[in-house]
Amino acid sequence: MDTALVHYSAAAVSDRGRKRASNEDAFGYSVKHGIYVLCDGMGGAAAGEVASSLAVEETMRRLQNRPAEASLPAAAEQAILAANEAIFYRAQRDRRLNGMGTTLVALVVEERRVWVFNVGDSRCYRLRGGHLQQITTDHSLVDEQVRMGRMTAQEALHSPYRNVITRALGTHRDVEPDVFAFAADSGDLFLLCSDGLTREMDDPLIASTLALDLPLGSLCQRLVAAANQAGGHDNITCLLVRAG
User: Cβ neighbours of residue 85 under 8 Å, at least 6 residues apart?
Assistant: First the structure.
């Protein structure tokens, strides 16, 4: 296996979209610490914004302050579980926030080693050698129906239940994130995004946009602009991470 050092760069853009009154997405990252987090909040009034911001802040804080000897993937999972508890108990204390929750997708890296965590339907993709692969699996009602063969992918696109997610941070005392581990290759491009992007753009369009020879910030802006042009029905957030 190639043991050459991999250097990472990142950029992100978050946009309210064309239909929503506020932005309930949140993101945070630290190239220095190898941490990249994106959340899509849900709940009445400002509860979604509270949940997503709290999840990002708690996850980032715990990982940036983890002991030097701590295993990165174990620390990341513990940080996500702590974020879940923080949201859950905040909602217990404040009735106005009752029922709030958030998705989470996180990428953590240690040289060539990569771990992806997700809860909900925010996604992580990897573009490698021109091929776009969805790393995460959506925790959504329609996606589970498709996997069980009870619904076609085309039916899922138009289902009235496409907004129903089956797993989220903060809605229950306990949560179990999915974890994916693999090695990065130089040139890999990772996309973390909320469903405001993937509901408006199919995978081939995302792949063709990511293949453009542009800085990461410009690619993020292109993705957001395309999602808005396609309707912009939800908040749109893109976080790109390149392994170089």
Answer: 173
- Comparing C-alpha atoms, which of 74, 139, 147, 73 is closest to residue 110? 73
Q: What is the DSSP letter of 95?
A: G
Supply the DSSP symbol for 97: G
3-class state of residue 127 by DSSP = strand
Please tell me the predicted confidence (pLDDT) of residue 1: 44
Q: 27: which strand partners?
A: 38
Separation between Cα atoms, residue 221 and residue 217, nearest integer Å: 6
Alpha-carbon gap, residue 97 to 63, rounded angstroms? 26
Q: Report all structural domains of the chain as residue ranges with CATH numbers, in order of start.
A: 8-243 (3.60.40.10)
**Run of H or E including 243:** strand 236-243
Q: What is the DSSP string of 86-140?
A: HHHHHHHH-GGGTT-EE-EEEEEEETTEEEEEEESS-EEEEEETTEEEE-S---B
The 10s digit of each residue's pLDDT in 155-181 is 777 777 777 899 999 999 999 999 999
Q: pTM score, two decimals?
A: 0.94
Crossing angle of the two packed helices 203-210 and 216-229, in degrees rounded to 10: 150
